[in-house]
Design brief:
This protein has about 230 residues and is α/β, with parallel strands linked by helices. The protein has a single domain, classed as P-loop containing nucleotide triphosphate hydrolases (Rossmann fold).
């Protein structure tokens, strides 16, 4: 059986990446492809526990502040489990794997935002993730202002409606996100063969327009299959 394809979605919270992942998953599934979706952190029993520690702002009340190195180590622990439990088995079975965040996020948030640098992140990726690379990365990179407005508005709604508080990172100052945004730009320039970048997305029509462009990129960048 031919190995499957690994596509990651990256960007700041509020960039629209999760919406675009879902749209692509629906389209591929309707075209007859087997699709496996996951998010990081999360998507395994261990990952869901780590997600609560890493994203819930209330975790710091119980545990105290996470050091940047501890935060990065937990991200990679989640990733290693996801690769072993979900990603590699699905790829071995020929599935198309769509992942909401991967090591680019760690390089942007911990490497750039926390100031740990890219080298440490990439070294850990080689060791812990066996240097597994996506076949394609869709980077949603709207303006910093628009991303932050959407992310903080969404998290307020999530707390009010569902009681879920995953805004630990959204509480960081704008300067932190400026570093994350810049790190993503550097990754896109360095990994131009893998990373395709999309800018601002405003309104339902624009979301659909981006979805159509993402589908075309999938056709063009992964020629071994041609969805209908």
């Amino acid at each position: 059986m031919a190995r499957g394809y690994f596509i990651t979605f990256e960007g700041l919270d509020g960039s629209g990446k999760t919406t675009q992942l879902r749209q692509l998953a629906d389209w591929l599934t309707s075209a007859g492809h087997r699709v496996v979706t996951l998010r990081q952190p999360g998507s395994s029993a261990l990952g869901d526990r780590l997600r609560a520690v890493l994203l819930d702002s209330r975790s710091e009340t119980a545990l105290g502040p996470l050091s940047p190195m501890a935060e990065m180590a937990l991200m990679f622990a989640d990733r290693a489990q996801a690769i072993a439990e979900v990603i590699e088995p699905a790829l071995s079975e020929g599935a198309i794997v769509l992942c909401d965040r991967f090591t680019d996020s760690t390089e942007a948030y911990q490497g750039g935002g926390r100031g740990l640098g890219s080298e440490r992140v990439l070294d850990l990726h080689r060791v812990i993730c066996n240097n597994l690379q996506p076949d394609l990365t869709i980077l949603l990179l709207p303006s910093l202002k628009n991303s932050l407005l959407r992310a903080r508005r969404r998290n307020r709604r999530s707390v009010q409606k569902e009681g879920k508080d995953e805004n630990r990172f959204e509480r960081e100052p704008d300067e932190f996100y400026a570093r994350v945004h810049k790190a993503y730009q550097k990754i896109a320039a360095r990994e131009a063969e893998r990373v395709v970048t999309f800018g601002d997305v405003e309104g339902d029509n624009s979301i659909e327009a981006i979805a159509l462009r993402v589908r075309q990129v999938v056709r063009d960048r992964i020629p071994a299959f041609q969805p209908c």
